[in-house]
Design a protein that fits this description.
Two copies of one chain form a homodimer. Chain A is mainly alpha-helical. The first copy, chain A, is 70% helix and 3% strand. In chain A, 37% of the residues are buried. Chain A binds a DNA duplex (30 and 30 nucleotides) through helix 3.
DNA sequence: GAACATTAGTTCGTCAGACGAACGAAAGAG
DNA sequence: CTCTTTCGTTCGTCTGACGAACTAATGTTC
């Protein structure tokens, strides 16, 4: 049907391409939580065999991006309020560690890079649109995590970011939240890159996520009809 | 060859059974880091088809328990000193969160359960053997995490525990480390279950893992021939 | 006409067999 | 002894098949 989605083999296992494509479509909200993912449909969609699709599904399953209902098949995972709270707690803890490690391990060049990025972000983030806010935030994390010298943390955190998915972007729509967020980022950079104060860097990162989490819950409740009394 | 390993279908996808069996064998050091895992060999070993084996491998791969070399196939993952350091940093952060959440969220019954377990551990852990130490420590974590009311944290932490794998158990062989560890556990329980002091509980958990991590590195260097100048 | 039993269709879970591509080791040539 | 060729191994992918479990439609009975 939609040949443009068809994946092209390029020296990487097909399944990885399918994983990426499918993950991206879930993240981009092309598919919604609860939607069924029929193997046959995915085969057609990406132009690959069932073998490939099934292996891709197994990987997304262990990333918790999809949920496989017994004898029913996979659906896009549905997050409850409790899940979101939990994810933000974990995220806060990991990002706290990220800030701490940057303060302790980053090279002078890393520190300069973060400071420079923060400058740029006054326009790309504070006064940017949804897309530029997203990408500058991504860059921020890339530098922060690279400076911390802990690739496992980087990977685990990226997995959490993926799971939180669309809720992460809500913050970019709220101008108030963005300016507050910018203040927090300045505090993080000051502690982690300028002062090299591990404890403060950690606290600043945690606080940043605590606030982001609260907002995500508010947005979640606004978007998802109240199901608490069902 | 070894029909006793053959997996028996019992109302759960075969692949899950294979995942569990394979994971356990890696954890039990039946297979060693770097060992190749030939699909054909695994098919015979567990008496299942390639489809099942390959899907199981995909899951273990995203748990990072195995590493798939391009066009070569999977091997049991090899951890470097840096990986272990990184894993313990992440573990410390997550267990700190676990302690904090227990202090904040646990029911009175949870608290009592943890306090009672600590009593039992004076014999099952402090004066136990390798097996009883392992299982009482597992129980400790089960109660701690259940009280924190964050299933995502529980799952992520369990994944880290799995990846650290055998290094976790080294601590149970060192009598000195065990008594120190027991002291730390008392401190954790006191802060998390008795005082309900979230900050102290967190700090105690982190300190516990910091020390465990240092020991793991020492043991690692003892066991793995020095490769730094290769 | 409503409740229940039966049937047919869908989708997954698993298996078997096949083929090409990439890698590694062994054999042969210079 | 080194370089090249060849061959076997193992993965990556595809196809086709079958039973089991669920869903929906159909039909039967009261």
């Amino acid at each position: 049907m939609d040949a443009s989605r068809r994946v092209t083999p390029v020296a990487a296992p097909l399944r990885n391409l399918v994983v990426r494509a499918l993950r991206q479509e879930i993240l981009d909200d092309v598919m919604h939580p609860g939607d069924r993912l029929l193997e046959s449909a995915l085969c057609e969609r990406y132009g690959v065999s069932r073998t490939v699709v099934r292996e891709a599904l197994r990987q997304l399953e262990s990333e918790r991006l999809i949920t496989v209902l017994p004898n029913r098949g996979p659906i896009v995972s549905v997050l409850s309020v409790h899940d979101i709270t939990s994810l933000y707690e974990v995220r806060g803890s990991l990002e706290g560690l990220a800030g701490e490690l940057f303060a302790r391990n980053a090279s002078e060049a890393d520190a300069v890079a973060l400071i420079n990025l923060l400058d740029k972000m006054e326009s790309t983030y504070l006064h940017g649109d949804l897309r530029s806010r997203g990408s500058s935030k991504d860059t921020f994390y890339r530098i922060l995590l690279a400076g911390g010298r802990n690739e496992i943390l980087a990977e685990d955190l990226s997995r959490v970011h993926t799971r939180i998915g669309i809720f992460r972007h809500y913050a970019f729509l709220d101008e108030d939240r963005v300016s507050t967020s910018m203040l927090e980022l300045r505090r993080i950079v000051d502690a982690a890159a300028r002062q090299r104060d591990a404890a403060r860097a950690r606290a600043a990162c945690e606080e940043h996520i605590r606030l982001a989490g609260e907002l995500a819950i508010v947005e979640y409740r606004r978007r998802v009809p109240d199901l608490t009394h069902s």
